[in-house]
Specification:
This protein has 591 residues and is α/β, with parallel strands linked by helices. It folds into four domains: 185 residues, Rossmann fold (3-Layer(aba) Sandwich), CATH 3.40.50; 100 residues, Translation factors (Elongation Factor Tu (Ef-tu), domain 3); 96 residues, Up-down Bundle (NADPH-cytochrome p450 Reductase, Chain A, domain 3); 144 residues, 3-Layer(aba) Sandwich (Rossmann fold). Helix content is 36%, strand content 18%. The protein is built from 21 helices and 19 strands. Strand 15, helix 15 and strand 16 form a beta-alpha-beta unit. Helix 18 runs parallel beside helix 20.
Length: 591
């Protein structure tokens, strides 16, 4: 799940709505729609002659798809016939035939394309890509300015379409995880320009049937802006006393609130900052909890506790501290622009650590507040199925705790859940649907799941779903952690699922129980013959967990298994994996 981890797919904002409204209103004007005045819905009778606008999305966690579906509703209200598709669902030939295109895309990892846009991007960026002079386009990019490669996926596609001769109808918009303030300035500067550019008008074009129309889903009243105050019904330690980790099982009560979820979705949790950290920051600033600060509504301490990010330092704060601190190492790292060196230097440091590089009071509370980013929700893969837990949502979360720079540090949300919510206390939650990470519709299909550590979360939900729904397809889980004696979370449940015939195969990899470390990718290779046979039998392959190492190692192992047991070259094995992706049989929830 630029996910978590703060997810990089930003929710749909007023800024985006304004951009889309301007785009589609202008597009309507340019295409001179006959018989469908601006703002009118497209009926079944008129949709055959209304111009098609292709709304394409690339997403890792599902939010960009939600934006695309909202874009379709906006298009319909402006007389369009929208066609919504994932980028990897279209061929480059079909793409080249499109005349009006909106692309909504998030950035995943360090400037990477999301999984369901990677194949499209490889084809689009190749030397063999066709010219696109007949295409008019707009790009809406989602990202997080906390990352160096902010909205990089959107920027790359926007530039490549221009290189191939497509005409940009509106300037690309790059949306941060919080967008209210820049929204007003963007609208003031951009909307008049859009109106001028789109006033020209052009002949109408016939509709082109390119894909199934997708209706926007009903909106939940509970969202990032309006989370549901849910009661924490269960907080249970899963890891053993001798474990180096602290993994906990949580259950949030739903009640009759109209908040629904599906196996594969994520849950957004609104954290509250540690009061002790807030107090230490206030003292460093020679401030107090009740202090009034220019530009901050209410008490400054309350804002630091509930509204500002004080764990991960913002890029602006890092730069401001460097200018004032006369800290040779920090200055050297920043001046040389070495991203890896900066990440290494920042590791384990929070906002207080940076403030401690300055003389006390060297940065005013007002200047400090202006350098902070808003406190964001954290997203966790849901570890329950609504078929077995309709009134609760389960999470499986590792508490982040470490000691560095002479004091204890903790994860913002993980320690909030573990330490600062009493039983039956409340936290703001909302569901983030992830339609790109679902069980197969065909319940007879085999399923292979790779989820070490807390990566087991969605697969616990999948197994519950398959059991409750009576699915006949076989299930195979690869799970592991450090030590079997202390880190085999949900062992009793997995044993029960095995005894019931729901979990047909369970391969374990506990890395520290022998001299040579063994991970899930090693178990995959050891069982490569059977794994390839399952894939040949139509199995779906799922991965959940760490994107930096585990997911990449698993991907390499998958390629190796397919090459060896399919008797394929490296290129042919890569084509085989790409076909799994096209068929939506290789799906990942990684962060």
């Amino acid at each position: 799940m630029q996910i978590p981890f703060i997810p990089k797919d930003a929710p749909f904002s007023e800024e985006q709505k304004s951009w889309l409204s301007g785009f589609f209103a202008g597009l309507h004007s340019r295409l001179s729609i006959q018989g469908a005045p601006a703002g009118a819905a497209v009926s079944a009778e008129t949709s055959a002659t209304a111009p098609v606008v292709n709304i394409l999305f690339g997403t890792q966690t599902g939010n960009a798809e939600g934006v695309a579906l909202d874009a379709a509703a906006t298009a319909k209200s402006n007389g369009m016939a929208p066609e919504v598709q994932a980028l990897d669902d279209i061929t480059l030939e079909a793409f080249a035939a499109m005349t009006c295109v909106v692309i909504v895309i998030s950035t995943y990892g360090e400037g990477e394309m999301p999984d369901n846009a990677q194949l499209f991007w490889e084809a689009l960026s190749a030397d063999t890509a066709p010219r696109l002079e007949n295409m008019t386009f707009g790009v809406l990019a989602l990202g997080d300015t906390g990352y160096d490669d902010f909205c990089q996926a959107g920027k790359l596609i926007d530039m490549r379409l221009e290189q191939l001769g497509a005409q940009r109808l509106v300037t690309r918009i790059d949306c941060d995880i919080d967008f209210e303030d820049p929204a007003a300035s963007w609208m003031e500067e951009t909307l008049p320009k859009i109106a001028r550019e789109l006033n020209a008008g052009q002949p109408s074009t016939p509709a082109i049937e390119t894909g199934a129309q997708i209706e926007p889903p009903a909106k939940s009243k509970w969202s990032r802006k309006s989370p549901y105050p849910s009661s924490l019904a269960v907080n249970r330690l899963l890891s053993g006393d001798t474990s180096a980790k602290e993994i906990r099982h949580y259950e949030f009560a739903l009640g009759d609130i109209g908040l629904t979820y599906a196996a594969g979705d994520a849950l957004g949790v609104m954290p509250v900052n540690d009061p002790a950290l807030v107090q230490a920051v206030l003292e460093r600033l020679n401030s107090s909890f009740e202090t009034a600060v220019d530009g901050v509504s209410g008490a400054f301490g309350e804002a630091l506790q509930h509204r500002f990010e004080i764990s991960t330092p913002s890029r602006d704060l890092i730069a401001a501290v460097e200018k004032r601190a006369e800290h040779q190492e920090l200055s050297h790292v920043l001046q040389h622009g070495d991203k890896e060196a900066l990440e290494a230097w920042l590791w384990g440091k929070d906002v207080l650590d940076l403030l401690q590089l300055l003389p006390q009071g060297a940065l005013s509370a007002t200047d400090f507040a202006a350098l902070l980013k808003p406190l964001q929700h954290r997203a966790y893969s849901i570890s329950s199925s609504p078929l077995e837990a309709p009134d609760h949502i389960h999470l499986t979360v590792a508490s982040v705790r470490y000691r560095t720079h002479g004091r204890n540090h903790g994860g913002v949300c993980s320690t909030f859940l573990a330490d600062r919510i009493e039983t039956n206390g409340t936290a703001g939650i909302f569901v983030s649907p992830n339609k790109s990470f679902r069980l197969p519709d065909d319940e007879t299909r085999p399923v292979i799941m790779v989820g070490p550590g807390t990566g087991i979360a969605p697969f616990r939900a999948f197994l519950q779903e398959r059991r409750a729904g009576g699915a006949s397809g076989a299930n195979w889980l690869f799970f592991g952690d450090q030590h079997k004696a202390s880190d085999f979370i949900y062992e009793d449940e997995l044993s029960e699922l095995s005894a019931q015939g729901v979990l047909n195969r369970l391969d374990l990899a506990f890395s520290r129980d022998q001299d040579q470390k063994i991970y899930v990718q090693h178990r995959m290779k050891e069982n490569g013959k059977d794994l390839f046979a399952w894939l040949e039998d139509g199995a779906y392959f799922y991965v959940c967990g760490d994107a930096t190492r585990m997911a990449k190692d698993v991907d390499r192992a998958l390629h190796d298994v397919i090459a060896e047991f399919g008797n394929l070259s490296a290129d042919d094995a890569n084509a085989y994996v790409n076909n799994l992706k096209r068929e939506k049989r290789y799906l990942r929830d990684v962060y």
